Amino acid sequence: MARPVRRSRGFTLIELLVAITIMALLSVGAFNFLSGTSRTADRLNARQADLLAIERMQSVIANDLAQWVDRPIRDELGDALPPFVLSPDGALEFTRRGLSNPLDKPRSDMLRVRYELRGKQLWRLTWLTLDRLPGLKPVESPIGPELERLRWRARGSNVSRIEEVWPPTSSGATGISGAVLNQGAPAVLNLEFDAPPYGEIRRIYLLPDNDNATG
């Protein structure tokens, strides 16, 4: 006697719906995990880029200050400017050596450097000609990340006294044009700035002594 053929049992509609729902939930979970991992990687890369920008900014400033030289200049109007100036608006300007001369041309190796905060961006300005001619434009370049605040403070031979401008007002300075030309640079320069999300960062620069320069 022949045995009846047993039919294989398939999935019911409810079982298929349950399986599809489980797969959908797993897919959503996997997508959220990968998306979160990608966002975390993007944030870490952005933080790393900001830290590198801060490090580079401080390195450029340190290199400029290490080569400052006691050489006054004249501005576009012919007024004398001291070799090292910290103005009331927070801008820092000074003369430095180190201008490269690969072609060995007969010219000075000094240049004028200025740092100023525009909005949230620090800018570095350089003049390759010390005594400026009317219409002479500096080379401008942004440096560092966005900053909420930036402040320079100077300390002279009396390091316990903090100066907000340089040359100090006690020397008779009434701004850049009225500053004393032979004051030189401070002994110590303090830099404070806020770089979100890292908060306040401080740096102290010790400036070398320099004799009067020509060129």
From TrEMBL:
User: What are the annotated GO cellular component locations?
Assistant: plasma membrane; type II protein secretion system complex
Keywords, sorted A to Z: Cell inner membrane, Cell membrane, Membrane, Methylation, Transmembrane, Transmembrane helix
Entry keyword 4Fe-4S: no
Residue intervals passing through the bilayer: 12-34
List the subcellular locations: Cell inner membrane
- Pfam short name (any one): T2SSJ
Q: Report the record's Gene Ontology biological process terms.
A: protein secretion by the type II secretion system
Topology of the protein relative to the lipid bilayer? Single-pass membrane protein
Recorded hits in NCBIfam families, A to Z, give: gspJ, IV_pilin_GFxxxE
- Family annotation (PANTHER family): TYPE II SECRETION SYSTEM PROTEIN J, TYPE II SECRETION SYSTEM PROTEIN J-RELATED
The family note in this entry says: Belongs to the GSP J family.
The entry's protein name is: Type II secretion system protein J
Query: What does UniProt list as this organism's lineage?
Result: Bacteria, Pseudomonadati, Pseudomonadota, Gammaproteobacteria, Moraxellales
